Backbone:
């Protein structure tokens, strides 16, 4: 591991099985459960985890994923229960869109294509 590099990202989730199914079906992430209230994910480019909570989820960071085919991945997000919070838009260097997962976490996916 390298000092000062982002190494892990952690999210809250209202439903661990639903959250795992969502990310596995879209991105192919794999999971390791650590009891009924925590699951770690890998195969994402950056390791992280989801912690079960009953509290309202307020996301303090926007995690940005990459995908070369935005239209295709946007369809998969919607089909898997995600909600588009910001439609595809252009920015210097590419295009991206934002979505929320079933627990309310907001993420973005960008492409340089």
Residues:
């Amino acid at each position: 591991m390298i000092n000062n590099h982002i190494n892990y990202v952690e999210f809250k989730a209202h439903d661990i099985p639903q959250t795992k199914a969502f990310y596995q079906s879209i991105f192919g992430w794999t999971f390791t459960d650590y009891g009924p209230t925590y699951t770690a994910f890998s195969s994402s480019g950056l390791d992280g985890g989801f912690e079960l909570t009953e509290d309202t989820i307020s996301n303090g960071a926007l995690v940005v994923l990459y995908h070369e085919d935005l239209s295709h991945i946007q369809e998969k997000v919607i089909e898997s229960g995600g909600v588009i919070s910001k439609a595809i838009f252009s920015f210097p260097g590419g295009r991206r869109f934002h979505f929320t997962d079933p627990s309310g976490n907001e993420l973005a996916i960008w492409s340089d294509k």
Notes: DSSP finds two helices and eight strands in the chain. The radius of gyration is 14 Å.
